Amino acid sequence: MSGRKLTRASARQLLLRLALVTVASGCAGAPSASASLASPAVSSDPGSFIPVGDPGLVLLREIRIGDCFNQNVGTDGRSHGFALVPCSDSHQLEMFGRGDIDSARSEYPGADILTAEADRICRPLFEGYVGMDYDDSKYTYWSYDPHPEDWPGDRTIHCALGNAALTAHDSGTVKGSGQ
């Protein structure tokens, strides 16, 4: 795939390391390049940070399929919620699906299982949403995994798509784009 600088395995490891930072900040989940987490900034301008508690921020579970959004990253490098933006504006991510981890699993899964579950849930949803096989797309998906402290009550993996660097991309929805 063109434009991808990180391998999926190395992106997963990076995201996994950043997951605890993101989740510790109170987010409902943490992103992962086809598995577990990341902390992209809304912009490089420190003035773009939205204060925690601002009504402009939403929880992950409040983002609907088809919504476009940016992560709200503070000067501490941690994610502090999500800001919905019109898809017609430049944005980092677009929510395309969600699904639950197997309910028979009683213990919180490790990184390898979360990666496998994200692939099981997000890959088929990606193709249905974008209209192209994931491996042929210019986009990557980022999964937001349930936090260990919320287990087993929260088993949902949220699937969002964006570019591999998690930077803002061109405006418009990716739904049905075949890209």
Could you name the key traits of this structure?
about 180 residues, alpha+beta, 6-stranded antiparallel sheet, about 20% strand, disordered N terminus
Short description:
This protein is an alpha+beta fold and 179 residues long. Helices cover 21% and strands 20% of the residues. Strands 1-3-2-4-6-5 form a 6-stranded antiparallel sheet.
Question: Could you describe the 3D structure shown?
Answer:
The chain has 179 residues and is an alpha+beta fold. The chain has one domain (8-162). It has two helices and six strands, in the order αββββαββ. It has helices at residues 8-24, 111-130, and strands at residues 57-58, 68-73, 79-85, 93-100, 140-144, 156-162. A hairpin with a 5-residue loop joins β2 (68-73) and β3 (79-85). The longest helix is centred in the last third of the chain and has 20 residues, at 111-130. It is globular and about 40 Å long. Mean pLDDT is 72; it is low at 1-47.
